[in-house]
Amino acid sequence: MSKHSEIPTYKEIIDFVKNQRKALSSLSKNNQTSFVKQNNSGNSTYRSKSVPHSFVTNNSGGENKKLYKSLTGNCTICKQLHSVFQCSDFLKLTPRERYSLAKEKKLCLNCLSSIHRIADCKSTNVCSICRFRHHSLLHFDKSCSNNNNNVRENISLDIAFSSQSPIDEHINPPNNFCSTSSNKITQNYTTLLSTAVVNIMSVSGEYKTARFLIDTGSQAHFITTKCCQRLKLPYQKYRSTVNGIGGHQNILGYVNLVLSSRFDSSIQYPIYALVIDKVTDRLPTTKIPVKSLSYLRHIQLADEQFYEPSKIDGIIGASLFLHILGNSKVVGPPNLPMAVQTSLGYIIMGNVPTPTIMEVANSQTFCSIIKPSLEQILHKFWEIEEIPAPPVLNQEDAECENIFITTTTREETGRFTVALPFKEYPPVLGDSFALACKKISLSRK
């Protein structure tokens, strides 16, 4: 196009836009195609994503023609009539092999063109994975493994100019091009969530035990269908959903329960619980060594088997937690869980070391929010939209309302003065006047 000091004509702008459109349409074929490949060297899977492009005015149209020719001409790899990033032979290679081949063929590492190097590349495209200046097909990760404990930590080094490969003298890499991320975090401890074993009265009147998770982040109480079947508790059908971090789950119904402490049968809590298929996986996620928890031996635990992974029958929500919470707590050594007193027994919560290294993917998070069903929302909508009808009053209520409206006043002190309502025709209490007079006369004698 024209120099910067001159305004381009309409024809020059149209020609330039057409050339850019052709180049962009050729480039977008690569960005709209997803390549999935797991190489043999342990590199991570690569997926290219569509990235928006932005083109600016160039000083000369010759560069655009050369770029377009290099993108649509013969492939440098297989000499066929297609672009390098569309070459099947090139796509079969691993990202490291593509990078080495691009260096060998002296291709631009940013657009894979053969007419210039990356230092002279006019393209504003960057890697769709790490956002650095190289082609997405040349992005590769570094993986390191620890053979001693068979625990893999995948650390992705988002660079195209690896320190293990020689850097071309024409390439000006960025100053800070190393970005690390971990997709598997390992830890040698687990977090205990508070659980309690309680008594629940069955239909026959007998008390049976059930294991509940005490969750202060839950707005409602929950119980599983298997627990209801085991206790033979009938539940009313109720359709709704409950939302949490892990997604949403359908509510099948609700049931009224009476929870009782195993240590004091007089302590009972009637609750309204929602019925769902499953609360969570077994808790805790791994068996806990109890040798370091000797300070918990002489207290009444709400769940004596808190260290054994076992199923959860339900959830005690936040509305009941403050009612069962006590004043005492037992604090152990640093980095060990503590025991908090409740009316159901001492509950254990906190971090505890494990003999084996665990993955964070096994951790559990609970947070439940009840979402009303569509029928309830629609019913509430019609209640709001419906014009309220005045209440029907009988004669006595209407008279009281009239007395209140006509006689109620407010004093300067702010107090209200209201006339007491009396019936207009009080009932006859009896003729006792003559009898009272006789008694008075007798007393005078």
UniProtKB/TrEMBL annotation:
Gene3D superfamilies from the UniProt entry: Acid Proteases
UniProt-recorded name of the protein: Peptidase aspartic putative domain-containing protein
A Pfam short name: Asp_protease_2
Residue ranges, compositional bias (Polar residues): 38-48
Source organism, top-level taxon: Eukaryota
InterPro entries the record matches: Peptidase_aspartic_dom_sf
Region (Disordered): 38-57
